Amino acid sequence: MPDQHNYDDIIGALQEKYNKIDQDTDDHLYGLLYSKPITYWDYIQTDALLNLQIQRTTLPDEMVFIAYHQINELIFKMILWEISQVAEKNNLDVIFFENKIMRISRYFDMLTTSFNIMREGMEVEQYMKFRYTLTPASGFQSAQYRLIEFASTELINLIDYRFRKDIDRNTPYTHAFEHLYWQAAGKDHKTGKKSTLLINFENRYKDEFLRFMEAYNTKNLWTRFKELPQDDQKDIDLVKAMRHFDYTVNVTWVMAHYNAARHYIDSGIGDGEATGGSDWKKYMHPKYQRRIFFPDLWTEEELKNWGNN
Ligand code: HEM
Q: Where, if anywhere, are coiled coils annotated (predicted)?
C-alpha cells in the first residue's frame, strides 16, 4: 500500500522557512530528492577522526596515549560549548545555570575517573620510551584547557599569587597574561627565561588567548553567577554544583593527573624530568597551584586546606 500521508503541513512549514530567507522551496525539495542518504560515517566523520591518531613510534601503547588525549580535547570542546551558552544567555536563570554546571561537572567527572586509563592503561617501559619523541611538547600546551580556565572565572583568580596585589581590572591583558599562574611552569624562576615549551605555546596561541581573556572577562561563569539575584546566589543546589565543578577541575582532576605523572616519571626508569621541562612535582600539585575558580564559595578553613586532603 503506497504511503498516503498528507504532507501539506510540513510543506507549508518548509515554505514558511524558506520564504523567511528568500529561498525557493522547490530548489530545496529537489535538493532533498537528489541528495544521497546520510550515513553514520559521513555524519560522524569517522574516517577523518580515526585517522588522526598518528604515532611517532611503533610502540602499541602510544596509541592509547594519543587517543586518550584526543578524547580529553573533545570533552574540553563540549565543556567550552556549555560554558559559552551560559556566557551568552540573556535573562540567565538559576535552573538553566545549574543544569549547565551539572553537565560541565559530569564531563570533568568522566575525565577524572577515566584518568586511570593513563595511570594503569599503559606499560611504563613503553611510555618511558615514546615520551622522548614528545619533548618539549606537553599536555601543558592544551589550549582548550586554558580557555576553560578563562571562561570559568575572573582573571585575578588565575594570576600567580605572588603578583595579585599589583594586578586589577585596569591592568592591560598583556601584562596579566605574563603573570598567569602557569607562566611559572615555563619560566626559569631566577632568570625569567622562557622555556621552549612556553615559547612555542605562546607563539601559537597568545593572540587568541588575549582576545578570549578580554571577551570572557565580563561573561565568565563566576561573573555571570554574581549577576544572579542575591537569593539565587544562595540557591543550595547551584552553589553545590559550582563548588563541585571548582573542586573537580582544580583538585580531583589535577590529583588524578599528578598521580599518573608520578606513576611514570617517578618509576625509576628515565631521568625523572617532565617532557615539558617544568618543576612538575611542585607545579602540578593542587596544594601549591591553589587554582580556585570560585573562592567566595569556600570557607576560610576549606581555602586553607585546598589540595591537602
Ligand atoms: C601518562 C600520562 C601523563 C603524564 C605523565 C603527564 C605529565 C605531565 C607533566 C609532567 C606536566 C607538567 C608540565 C611539563 O613539564 O610537561 C603536565 C601538564 C599538563 N598535562 Fe599532562 N600528563 C599526562 C596525561 C595528560 C592528559 C591525558 C591530559 C589531557 C589533556 C593532560 C593535560 C595536561 C595539562 C592541561 C597540563 C598543564 C596543567 C597545569 O598547567 O596545571 N596530561 N602533564
A: none
Q: Same domain, yes or no, for 73 and 21?
A: no
pLDDT digits (tens, 9 = 90+) for 187-239: 987 888 999 999 999 999 999 999 999 999 999 999 999 999 999 999 999 99
Which single residue is written with the C-alpha cell 567527572? 109
Distance CA 155, CA 166 (A): 13
Unique residue bearing C-alpha cell 600546551: 141
Q: Decide if 158 is inside a domain.
A: yes
The CA distance from 140 to 163, in Å, is 21
Ligand 1 test: best mutation among 68, 70, 140, 160, most atoms within 8 Å of CB?
Answer: 140
Query: ∠ CA(40), CA(41), CA(45), 5° rounding?
Result: 115
Kindly state whether residues 21 and 70 are assigned to the same domain. Answer: no
Q: Calculate how far, in angstroms, residue 222's C-alpha sits from the geometric centre of ligand 1.
A: 25
| pLDDT at residue 1, rounded to an integer | 54
What is the residue with the minimal CA distance to atom 7 of ligand 1? 261
Distances (CA, A) of 125 to 60, 66, 91, 139, 147: 11, 16, 54, 20, 33
Q: What is the mean pLDDT of the segment spanning 135-145?
A: 95
Residue 308: pLDDT band (50, 70, 90) is: confident
- Block residue for cell numbers 631521568: 271
pLDDT confidence band for 278 (50 / 70 / 90) = confident
pTM: 0.94
95 and 238 fall within a common domain: yes
